[in-house]
Structure formats: structure tokens, C-alpha cells
Amino acid sequence: MSVTGDLNSLYKVAYAKGVEDLIPKASKLSDMIPFVPSELQNGKQYEQPVVLSAEAGFTYSLDTQSAYDLNTSVGMNMEMAEVPGADIVLDSTVGYNQAARASHSATSFKSVMSTKFENMLKSSEKRLEIAYLYGNQNIGTAALQDVGSPTTSLTFIVDYASWATGIWTGSENANIVFSYSSDNTAVDSLRSFAISGVNPDTRAITVIAGTQGTAGTIATLETAIEAHALNINWYGSVSGSAGSFAYAEMAGLRKIITNTGSLFGIDASVYDLWKGNSVTVSGQLTMAKVLSAVSKAVQRGLDSDAVVLVNPSTWADLASNLAALRRFDGSYSRKKMDNGAETLEYVSQNGVLKIVSYNIVKQGDCFIFPLDKVLRIGARELGLNDPTRPADEIFFTIPGKAGVGLRAYTNQAIFLEAPAQAVYISGIVNSL
To answer: Which residues lie below 8 Å from residue 158, measured CB to CB, with a gap of 6+?
Structure first.
């Protein structure tokens, strides 16, 4: 039997029920938000009818009037939101020597391959989670700054508000690209730069010439960052060249909530209910500020429980700001109520606000959204298989290479059915 045949056979035995046991549990948004059932998916894009305005053909009359004429009917406006799924593919390789060690038995297969599978899934889940929030935006920004006189590597500081430790930790060797913050014009034609160092304490990122696609030039990046503020994106998540720029990933919650133009085929400048609520605060985020922001969504229809997604430093500030709105009733739980708990819950005018800490939320950001209005759509959940092959055949031969390949793949996107019921808060400055 071939090497790939041996490995695929052992995969079937070692993981008869798939690799669900390896999928990381730290994927908070994937865990919270349901994936649309297969019968509601059409593979190419998800279509959802959205009611954007109410019926308005009313007639008013006093009792003294009779046989009066009715005003012309004015029907509701309903549009079809068309949400395309977005591919994320992680390509990986296993050398013949590692494959040989794994091919002896199901036990040896699990011993050798489990770490590989787990890391592939965790890496893919992380990219997905970041896209759920910041797809079609950026993973960070860097203000105009003096970076010295770099030759082979360059170190820059990510802006405080756009920094999220969870985005950058463990990203060494990943490739990123830059564009000008003023107009998203590509820097160095979106050539790649590889991350060689991350310092979470100082928000410093060190890069060298890229290892994917065409490598960027350190001198070109130095000139750009010493003259302009820059946006940062993962290599491959955007495309274009000098003077042009396009996203190749899903629209995340920040894009959806802050959208003021056309998105998913519906124009927010025409329909007020298709536009989210954006609130800018200063200083620490307090419950008073959260409740004030929530009131904007309540005014526009929010009447159910909502998630308040914040950076861990923001969560710490809110935890120290516990006030009279804490929830004390029959559902009391130590995990929800004690200082240092995993989740804080407050009763607000819309219902319960569940305060959730997440290390991929940027320090200056907060997202508030009703869970019952958010879906994940697409053709396929994350898995370790090429969609062109049977689900239990994950290994394939790489021509001209002494190794076999495997891939993590998903096609999906996040969709918020009622942007008017969600809030994006910016401008937060935490105490830590």
C-alpha cells in the first residue's frame, strides 16, 4: 500500500469518529455562535430575507366620519441579504520520516500525529476567530514612527487601541502585509513580511523579509512607516497592488456593525435598520458606559440577552466596577458572580448582559450583540480534509517532495441579522 494509503487507513482506525476530541475549546465565538444547518446552506452563499422597514399605509379617522377613503398602502421593505462563505485553507506537510514512524499502528499514528492535528486545528481556529471580529478590517495599526536604521529586520510598535495580545502571541513565522491607513493603498505592493519576534509588554513586532509569495523589502517598509500610519493584515487575507486593495476574507463583526454603505447586497445609507451603533468613549469602560451604549441598541429593537465581548484588561476594570445591577437570583453561580469569575452578568433593560473576556479583542474595543441574531454560515465547518476528497482521506502525495500533505479547511462567514441591535464601542483606555 502507498504511504498515503497507510496513513489514511490508520487515520480511519485511530480517529473513527473524526478529530473532534482535538478541536480546541478556547474558540469562544465558534462555541457561542451556531453553524447554520446543512439544509439551510446552498454552498455558494447564504440568503436571508431581512425586514428593513415597517408597513406604513395607515388611515386615521374620528368616530364622526363615515365611508372615508383609505390612504394608499405602503408596504414593508424586505431585502435579501446575500452572505458569501469565505475559504480558509491551512496547507501542511509531513515528512516521510515522520510518516514512517506514524504508519506502524493506530497507537503510533496517534502518538505522532495528534500534536500535528491539534496544532493545525488551533491555528486555523485562531485565524477564524480573528476574522469573526476583524475580517475586512485589520489586525492592528501602527502609527507613523521612527524605526531607526534597520537592515535585515525592523521593529515597530502596534498602537495601543488596536493591540490584542491573543492576535499576536504565537504568531512568529506568520507573514503579514501593510497598507496606508489613510486610504488602504498597498505598501510595497502587498509583498510579505515574516514575523520574527513579538513582545506583548511593549506591543513591539519585529519583521524580516517575508517567506510567502514575494518577499517585501525592509527599506521600503522603513520609508513607509516613517512617513505614514499603517494598517496590518495577514498575508493572503487581502489582495491588490500599489493603488488597489481588496479583502479576501469574511466581513467580521466590526465591519458589519460599523458599516454605513452597501454590505451583503443591502445599503445601510438607505435602510437605517441595516446600520449598527458606534459609540466612542474615553478612559476606562464602566458599566454606566456599557448601559448607555446598550440603550442605543434598545432604542432600535434590542429586547433579548446580549454578549458584551471585551479585552481581558477591560474585563478586569468592569469586574472591579461591580455595582447594584449584578444578578442575584435562583440562577446564582460561583462561576458567574464571584470576583475573578469567568463570566459577569448584569441585568439591563434588554435582558441579561453577559460580559465575556477574550484576548483577541483589541484593547480599545468592545462588541455588544444579541446571540440569537448571529449565525455562522457557509459550506463546511473546519475540518482536516480536502473537500475534493472523501472525508476520511486526509493525506495526499506531494509531487517531487519527500513527504505527504494534509490540509485544514473551512468555508464560512459570520452573519449578524440585525445590525441595529448591536453596538461597537471604541476609544477604551484600560487601567492596566
So the answer is: 140, 141, 142, 168, 203, 204, 205, 232
177 phi/psi in degrees, rounded to 5: -130, 165
DSSP 215: B
Q: How many residues would you count in the chain?
A: 432
**Cell numbers 491539534 correspond to what residue?**
118
Checking if the pLDDT of 247 tops 60, the result is: yes
Residues 76 and 394: their CA atoms lie apart, in Å, by 49
Show the cell assigned to 399: 509531487
174 neighbors 232 (Cβ within 8 angstroms): no
pLDDT class for 55, splitting at 50, 70, 90?
A: confident
CB 415 within 8 A of CB 372: no
Which distant-in-sequence residues (6+ apart) come within 8 Å of 320 by Cβ? Answer: none
Cβ distance 422 to 370 under 8 Å? yes
For the chain, how far is it from start to end, CA to CA, in angstroms?
59
Closest CA to 221 of 134, 167, 140, 142: 142
Residue with cell 485553507: 89
Could you tell me where the DSSP H helices lie in 195-349?
Answer: 218-225, 253-258, 287-299, 312-319, 334-337
| Cβ proximity of 398 and 93 under 8 Å | yes
3-state secondary structure 237-257: CEECCCCCCEECCCCCHHHHH
Q: In whole angstroms, how far apart are CA 22 and each of 18, 271, 351, 401, 410? A: 9, 43, 35, 28, 16
Which residue has cell 497598507? 179
Please tell me whether residue 379 adopts helix, strand or coil conformation.
strand
Q: What is the pLDDT of residues 347-357, one digit of tens each?
A: 899 999 999 99
> Distance from CA of residue 279 to its chain's centroid?
20
106-126 mean pLDDT? 80
Element (H, E) at 155: strand 153-157
Give the whole-angstrom CA distance, residue 316 versus residue 290. 14
Cell numbers representing residue 316 in the block: 478586569
Q: Which residues of 99-119 are buried (b: 16+ CB within 10 A; e: fewer)?
A: beebbeebeebbebbbebbeb
> In which element (H, E) is residue 383 found?
strand 374-383
What torsion, rounded to 10 degrees, do the Cα atoms 112, 195, 183, 150 define? Answer: -170
CA 381 to chain centre: 15
* pLDDT given at position 32: 92
Concatenating the DSSP letter of every residue in 332-375 gives --HHHHSTT-SEEEEEETTEEEEEEE-TTS-TT-EEEE-GGGEE
